[in-house]
Amino acid sequence: MTQAAQIQEEANQLAHGNKPGNWKEYFSFSTDHKVIGIQYLVTTFFFYLIGGVLATLVRTELATPESDFVSREVYNSLFTVHATVMIFLWIVPGATGGFGNYLIPLMIGARDMAFPRLNALAFWIIPPTGLMLMSSFLVGAPGAGWTNYPPLSLVSPKAGEMIWILSILLLGTSSILAAVNFIVTIFKMRVPGMGLNQMPLFCWSMLATSFLALIATPVLAGAMILLSFDVLIGTAFFNPTGGGDPIIYQHLFWFYSHPAVYIMILPIFGMISEIVSVHSRKPIFGYKAIAYSSIAICGLGLIVWAHHMFTSGTPPWLRMFFMITTMVISVPTGIKIFSWLATLWGGKLDMSSALLFAMGFICLFVIGGISGVMTASVPFDIHVHDTYFVVAHLHYVLFGGSVFGLYGGFYHWFPKITGRMMSEAWGKAHFWLTFIGFNLAFMPMHKLGMEGMNRRVAEYDPKFATLNLICTIGAYLLAVSTIPFIVNATWSWLRGKPAGDNPWRALTLEWMTTSPPPVENFEADPVLATGPYDYGMGSRATEVDVPFSEADDPTLSAGPSSTLRAKPDPVVAANPSDRGDESYNRE
Amino acid sequence: MNIPSQITTLLAGILLTLISFWYGQNHNLLPVEASKNAASVDSLFNAMLTIGTGIFLLVAGILIYSAIKFRRDPDDTSDGPPVHGNIPLEILWTAIPAIIVLGISVYSFDVYMDENGMNPMDHMAHGKAQHQVAAQPGNAVAQLTGSPAFAATLVSQADPNQQQAESILKDPATNAVREDIPQRKDAPTLGTVSPRVGSSPEKTEKPAEVVISATGMQYAWLFTYPGTEVVAGELHVPLGRDVLINISANDVLHAFWVPEFRLKQDAVPGRQTEIRFTPTREGQYPLICAELCGAYHGAMKTIVVVEPQEAYDSWLQSQEVASAEVLDRAIAANPATMTDEEYLAPYAQDIGITAAALEQLHSHEGHS
Amino acid sequence: MTTLDPAKLERNHHQDDHHVASGHEDHPDYRLLGIIVFLVAEGMIFLGLFTAYFAFRTVAPTWPPEGTPKLELLLPGINTVILIGSSFVIHNADTAIKKNDVRGLRLWFGVTAAMGAVFLAGQLYEYFHLEFGLTKNIFASTFYVLTGFHGLHVCFGLILIMAVLWRSLKPNHYNSKDHFGVEAAEIYWHFVDVIWVILFLLLYII
Questions:
Q1: What are the φ/ψ torsions at residue A457 (nearest 5 degrees)?
Q2: What angle is formed at CA C64 by the lines to CA C59 and CA C65, rounded to 5 degrees?
Q3: A550 contacts chain B (CB < 8 A)
C-alpha cells in the first residue's frame, strides 16, 4: 500500500539534505534560524525553570494561612516576577521565537528567515533582559503585580519599577522584530507551489500571532514610556494626584495584554494541529476552518481587552460590548477544538508522548475556555474578578494550554531537532505527573475564588487552609514533574535512539530533510507531492483542474508538480527550469 | 450483548445531560446569598456551569473513548481514513456554540439589567438621585443643602462625578486628600462614575434608603455615614433596606468586595464609584479589598454586619458618641505631614490594625 | 515506484548548487517590505499615545487644565510647512536616483536634511520659550512627550538621511537598480511627516 509519506519523501529525495547539522554549533552566535530557534528554546526553558522556582516559593508561602515564609513585600515581588517571567520570557518567546523560528522556514521550504541578522538580534535581546529582570531582586524587585497598575506602581521602590519597565520595553521590541521577520518570511519565502492554503497550519497560526504582536505590542510600549515618565520624572499621566488617570493605563495595558494571551496560545493551536494529525494518521479535519479561525481570533482578540476591567468603573455599554465580543471569540476557538476531536476520531492513534500532551492540552484548554466564557459574563465576573477563580482560569489556559502544547511540541519535534528519539516511558511518566500535579494545583482554586479568596494575598482566611494545602502539594508535584522531562531530554540528546529523518512519517516539509537539518535546510527546493495532511492520500480537491489519474505518482497526478500539465505554470512549477523569471523568490 | 451504537450514543447523551444538570444545581461552590441580586447571579452561574459541564464531559469523553478505541496496533503502519472535513458537521459545531454564547450573553444582559447596570437614564438620573438623597430630611444632611457645594451641584448637574466629589468633600475620611486629587470628568467612553450595579429596576428612580461612604486607603476601609458623625472601620447595614455605598480611594486602587453579596467595585482615586444592594440575610460577612494595594493587601479586610433596623440604629447611636472625639482629630490632621502610623492611630481600634502591623508598616515606609 | 525523471531532478539539484554556496542570507531583497511592516508597529505606538492623549483630554475637568498658557501657532505652523515641504523635496531624490542621477540624489537629500534640521531647531526653540515645563500639568506632559517622541523620530530620520548621503559618496553605491537605502530613508521620512501632521492637528488645532 502506498502511503502519502512515502510519496512525499520520494519526491523530495533530491531536496533532502545530505550532511546532518552539528548540534554543537547551536551554542554559538549564529544567524541560522535553527540555531536561533534552539537558543530560544533552551533559554526560555531555563527561564521557565526560574519562573517555576518563584511559583513554588509563592505556593510555599500559601501553604499556611499566615504570612510566615517570606516578608509580604518579597511575596508580592515573587508573584510579580513569576508572572512576568512566565509570560514574557517563557511562553511568548518559547512558542513564537523558539518553535516559530525553528519550524517556519523548514515548513515553507525556505533556507532561512527573511532577515537572519535581525532574527539573531531579536534573540540576543532576551538573555540579558532576563538576567536584568532577575537582578531586580538585589535592589528591591517590582511588586505591583505583572499588570503593574498605577498608582501602586508609582509608590513602589523606583529601581525595581524601572527594571520592570525596561524589561518589558526590550522584550516587546524583541517580539516586534520577530513578528516583522515572520510576516515577511511567510508571505514571501514559501516554496513555489505552496499557496497560503497549502501551508501547514502552524504557519497560519504564526501569521496570526505575528500580526497580533505587531499591532498590540507597540501600544504597550507607549504605555510603558508614559509610565516611566511618571516613575522617573514625576509627570502625572497615571497619577491621580496630579490630574492623571490610572484607568487609561489599564486600557493601554490590556490593549496589549489581552492579545498577548492569543500570542501565547495561537502558535500552540498550530502545533496541536500538526501533532494531532500526524499521530492519528488522519488528515486534519476542516483545514480551512482551522486556518481561518486563527485569523478570526486574531481580529477579535484586538477588541476584547476591557473584559479585564469590568469592575474598574467601565460604563455599561462598554461592559456589554466587551462581554459580547469576548463570548464570540469562543466560537472560532470551539471550531478548532471540535476539529481536533474529529481528526482524532477514527484515526490510528499511536498514543506517543506528543499525542498524550496534545490530548491533555485539549482536555485542559476546554476547562480554561469554559471558565473563560463564565468570566466574560459581566454579572458573574463582578463576583469573581481578581479572585482565585481568575488565577485558576488563566493557569488552565496558559499552563494547561500553552505549556502542555509546548511540551507536546518538544516531544514531536525533538527527533528533528536532535536526530534522536526521546524515551517514551519517561515521556509518559512526565505527562501523568504534570497532568495530575496541574489539576491538583489549579482545580481547587476555582472553588477558592468563588468562596471569597482574593488574588495576590500573602495571608488568607484560615477556612481556606485545606484547599490551599492541596494546591501547594499539586504545585510541588508540578515542580517534580519537570525532572523526568529534563532527564529525558538530556539523556536522549546524548544517547537516544537515532531517529532517522521522518520517524513519525509526517508530510510537512521539515521532515523531508536530514535530522538535524543541514545549515541550508534542503539541498534543492523541496516539492509538494502531497498536501501537508494528506494521510491516506485522500480526496481533498486540489485547485488544479487535472484529473487525479495516478495517485501513486505525484508527477503524473494532479497538483502543482504534475507533468500532465501541458505547460507548467511558471509560478508553481516543481522544476526550476520551468519557472522562468517567475521564480523570483527563490533565486 | 449487542446493543446498537445509536442506542449507546443516546444513553450516553442522556447520562451526560443528567450529570450536567445535577452538577449545575449541586456544585456547592458559592458562598451563601446575602443580597437581593445574589440569587440571580447564582442562577446565571448554575446555567453556565450546567452547559460547561456538558461540554467538558463531551470533550473528555471523546478524548478517552478515542484513546481506547482508536489506539493503533503497534505493527499497523497504515494511515487512517482520509476524511478531510464535513461541511454540515462544521456548520453545526460553529452554530451551536454561537447560539450557546448568544444565549449566555442575553441571560447575562438580563441579570445585569436586573442589577440595573444598564439603566439608559443612568447619567441623568444619577445626579438627581444624588441630591434628592442629600435633601432628604430623614438623613439629616440638611446642612449640605445650604452649603455652596450644593449650589455647585445644581450648576454641574450633568457631571455627577465632580458634583458628588463636592458633597463628599465633607467626608472626614477623605477630605484631607481630596484637594490633592482632582476629580475626573464623567466620560461616556471611559467611565468615571461607575454604573450603579446592584439595585433593582423598580428602585432606580428612587434615591437609596441608606447612603454610606466607603473610603479605601492602605490598608483599611473607613466608613462614614453622611448626616451622622460616625466614622467606623466596619460596615453596618440595615437588613432589607436599599443601601448605596459611595466608594472612593485616598491613595492607590482598592476594590470593595463582599463575596456573599456577589458584588465588587474598584475604588479609584480621582473617581467616584458606587455600588447598591439590598442585604437580605442577617449576619457578618467578610469585606475584602480585591485589588492589589501593596504589601498588606491580604490584611486589608473587615466585616460587613447585616442587622435589623433597630440594631443598626442603636449601633449608629453608640458610634456617634465614640466617634466625635476621633473625628475632631481626623479633621485637624493633615496626612501629608504625618506618617501612616500617626495618621492611622486614631482609627486603629476601628479597623483592627495591630501595633505590630503598624510597626511593620512603619519599617516599610522607612526603606522605600 | 515513482517515475520521476531522474535527469530532470538531477538538473534541479545542480542548478540549486550555487544557492548553497552563497549562504542562507542570500535571497531577494525584502528589506523594503520589512521596513513597511515595521512602520506599522511604529504607527501603533503613536496611535496608542494619541489615544491616550484623547482619553486624558476627555476625562479632564477642563482642557487644557487651568493655568496653561495658550500655545503660539506661528512657529509650529512654519515648522509644519517646512516638514510637509521636505516630503516633496525628498521625493525628488528618489526620482533622481531612478534616473541614475547620484548628484541629484545628493542635492535633494541635502536639502531635506537641512529642512529637517531647521524643524528640529524650531522645535527646540519652542521648547525653550514655552512657559510650562514637563511636569506642570497633564497637558504639558502629554505635549512634551508626544512632540519629544516625534522629535526623536525626526532625529533618527536625519541620521538615516545623513547615512545615505555619506554612502552616496562612494562611487556607484546607489544606482537606478539598487538604492534600498534611499527608498528606506524616504519612506521613513514620509512616515515621520504624516505623524507630525496628526500631532499638529491634535495638539495645536483642536
A1: -115, 140
A2: 80
A3: no
Instruction: Flag whether A214 is in a domain.
Output: yes
Q: B328 is in which domain, residue-wise?
A: 122-367
Neighbours of chain A (3+ CB pairs under 8 A): B, C
Tell me, what DSSP letter sits at residue B78? -
Beta-ladder partners of B301 = B288
Chain A interface, mutation test: which of C30, C36, C47, C142, most A Cβ atoms within 10 Å?
C30
Q: Do C61 and B185 touch (CB under 8 A)?
A: yes
Cβ contact, residue pair B184, C59, below 8 Å? yes
> Which of A201, A333, A361, A377 should one mutate to test binding to chain B, selecting the residue with the greatest count of B CBs within 10 A?
A377
If asked whether residues A487 and A535 sit together in one domain, one would say: no
pLDDT tens by residue, chain A, 587 residues: 356 777 788 777 777 766 665 656 666 678 889 999 999 999 999 999 999 999 999 999 999 999 889 999 999 999 999 999 999 999 999 999 999 999 999 999 999 999 999 999 999 999 999 999 999 999 988 999 999 999 999 988 899 999 999 999 999 999 999 999 999 999 999 998 898 999 999 999 999 999 999 999 999 999 999 999 999 998 989 988 887 889 999 999 999 999 999 999 999 999 999 999 999 999 999 999 999 999 999 999 999 999 999 888 788 888 889 999 999 999 999 999 999 999 999 899 999 999 999 999 999 999 999 999 999 999 999 999 999 999 999 999 999 999 999 999 999 999 999 999 999 999 999 999 999 999 999 999 999 999 999 999 999 999 999 999 999 999 999 999 999 999 999 999 988 999 888 999 999 999 998 888 888 888 888 888 888 898 876 444 344 333 444 444 445 444 555 444 445 455 555 555 555 444 444 33
CB B236: neighbour CB atoms within 10 A?
22
Q: Would you call C58 and B162 a contact, using CB atoms and an 8 Å cutoff?
A: no
Residue boundaries of the structural domains of chain C:
30-205
**Mind telling me how many Å the CA of C49 is from chain A's nearest CA?**
6
Q: Which residue of B has its CA nearest to A4?
A: B79
Question: Quick check: A152 and B292 CB within 8 A?
Answer: yes
Q: CA-to-CA distance for B122 and A476, rounded, in angstroms?
A: 50
The CA distance from C26 to the nearest CA of chain A, in Å, is: 9
Which residue of B162, B183, B187 is in closest CB contact with C58? B187
Cell of C28: 531577494
pLDDT for A481? 95
Task: Measure Cα distances from A102 to A31, A122, A206 in Å.
Answer: 12, 14, 12
- CATH code of domain C30-205: 1.20.120.80
Cβ-based contacts of C61 with chain B (< 8 Å): 162, 182-185
Q: Residue B34 falls within a domain, yes or no?
A: no
* Domain-embedded: residue A519: no
For residue B237, tell me if it sits in a domain.
Answer: yes
The verdict on a CB contact (< 8 Å) between C59 and B162 is: no
CATH number for the domain spanning B228: value is 2.60.40.420
- Residue B170 in domain: yes
**Residue A41 is which amino acid?**
L
Q: Count how many residues are written for chain A.
A: 587
Which residues of chain B does C59 touch, with a Cβ-Cβ cutoff of 8 Å? 184-185, 187, 190, 192
Could you tell me if residue A501 is inside a domain?
no
Chain C residues with CB inside 8 Å of A587's CB?
Answer: 28
Residue B9 lies in a domain: no
Q: How many domains does chain A have?
A: 2
Range(s) of the domain holding residue A561: 530-587
**A446 and A581 fall within a common domain:** no
Residue A20 makes CB contacts below 8 A (sequence gap 6+) with A419, A514, A515, A516, A517, A518
Whole-prediction pTM = 0.86
Tell the residue number behind the cell numbers 502544547, with chain if given. A405
Burial of B135 (0-12, 13-18, 19+ CB in 10 A): middle
| Same domain as A441, residue A398 | yes
Cα A484 from Cα A431, distance rounded (Å): 9
- Minimal Cβ distance to C4: which of A11, A188, A520: A11
* Alpha carbon distance A445, A439 (integer Å): 10
- CATH number, domain of A389, equals 1.20.210.10
Clarify whether residues A300 and A231 are in a common domain.
yes
